[in-house]
Amino acid sequence: MKTCSLVLALALIDPFILVAQGTFRNMDFEQAQIPQNQAAGFVDATLAFPFWTVFNDSIPQTQVLWNNVSVGSTQASLLGQSDHALDGGYSAFLFGGSGACSISQVGQVPTDAISLLFKVQIFQGQQINVSMGGVSLPVFDISTGPNYAVYGVNVSQFEGMQEQLQFTAPSGPNYWNIDDITFSTTAVPEPSAGGLLAFGGLLLSLRILRRKE
């Protein structure tokens, strides 16, 4: 079972305690409405990624690939059990080619959330961007599994807030397979002092801009 395997994997890292998802949904991509035996090809993005919006750069996409990946063009894919899903039945594969490929949704961050953890499998490239409320968050490598790494970001400054969560594979090429996104009550490693100052300034600027709207 996907949930059990994720809890076991994270328990081996450190005492990361998982919490409720707030109002974010389909964070493990298991609510996909694409049958496992459907032929590979393009499918409706809303059926492949319920509650998520798929973007190529800033342009929403109505179709994504199923059980296939792009070999050059910026494209999101839903992978099934027969094509390298990281866990359970489905996972999200983002390819940043000439442009960036993103998935995003808006939800409420749990009131006790300190970090956001997720599994990744890197096929090519070294960059993935995670943002909350338009703020790009430092990404930390937490641990490794048999065919994936667990990454994490700090989200404590957003606890209880309604925000947009976005995962982006920048233009590259950058190939990223993503799965099992979950909130935790344990902090991931902190960035350097200089990084904290810059990040704090960015958050302050964001708050000021919001007050002016």
Description:
With 213 residues, the protein is an alpha+beta fold. It has one domain (2-212): Jelly Rolls (Sandwich). Helices cover 16% and strands 38% of the residues. The protein is built from three helices and 14 strands. The chain has helices spanning 2-11, 45-48, 193-212; strands at 41-44, 53-56, 59-60, 63-66, 75-79, 91-96, 101-108, 115-124, 129-132, 135-137, 140-144, 149-154, 162-169, 174-184. It has an eight-stranded mixed β-sheet with strand order 1-4-5-6-14-8-12-11. Strands 3-2-7-13-9-10 form a six-stranded antiparallel β-sheet. The N and C termini lie far apart (45 Å).
Low-confidence blocks of residues? 1-15, 191-213
Q: What is the CATH first-level class name?
A: Mainly Beta
What structural class do the secondary elements suggest?
A: alpha+beta
- What's the structural domain tally? 1
- Report the mean per-residue pLDDT as an integer: 84
The CATH homologous superfamily is called Galactose-binding domain-like
In a few lines, what is going on in this structure?
Helix content is 16%, strand content 38%. The protein has helices at residues 2-11, 45-48, 193-212; strands at 41-44, 53-56, 59-60, 63-66, 75-79, 91-96, 101-108, 115-124, 129-132, 135-137, 140-144, 149-154, 162-169, 174-184.
